[in-house]
Amino acid sequence: MNRRLLDVFPKDFEHTTVFKRVDLGGNIKQEARAFWVGENYVFFYAILHQREDGLVVINFNLNSNVEKIMSKF
User: Fold this and answer.
1) If we measure between CA atoms, which residue out of 49, 73, 47 comes closest to residue 59?
2) 3-state class of 66 per DSSP?
3) How far apart are CA 9 and CA 55, in angstroms?
4) Residue 16 Cα distances to 23, 33, 40, angstroms
5) Percent of the chain scoring above 70 in pLDDT
6) How far apart are CA 10 and CA 4, in angstroms?
7) Does the pLDDT of residue 54 top 80, yes or no?
8) Is the whole-model pTM more than 0.70?
9) Helix (H) or strand (E) holding 67
10) What pLDDT, on a 0 to 100 scale, did the predictor assign at position 7?
């Protein structure tokens, strides 16, 4: 996956934002982030669990189509 991302986005992302976060209870949340450089965007979706020993990514998805990410909420 890393190699594929480097092929599509050879430059480091210059910007990032969390644009949707939903608390699901029990220290679990859904989160959507955008990363971009110039006019190139990638969107990140994750289900996260905050535990005493740290943050666990339960599930994640990367996509250049924001609709695919938003459909997960």
Assistant:
1) 47
2) helix
3) 26
4) 20, 7, 12
5) 99
6) 10
7) yes
8) yes
9) helix 66-70
10) 77
Distance CA 10, CA 12 (A): 7
- pLDDT band at 30; cut points 50, 70, 90: very high
**Distance (Å, rounded) from C-alpha 63 to C-alpha 35?**
11
CA dihedral 70, 60, 17, 19 (to 10 degrees): 30
The 8 Å CB, 24+ separation contacts for 31-38 are 32/69, 32/70, 32/72, 32/73, 34/66, 37/9, 37/11, 37/12, 37/13, 38/11, 38/14
Cα 28 to the chain's mean position, in Å?
A: 15
Helix (H, G, I), strand (E, B) or coil at 70: helix
Read off φ and ψ for residue 62, nearest 5 degrees. -115, 140
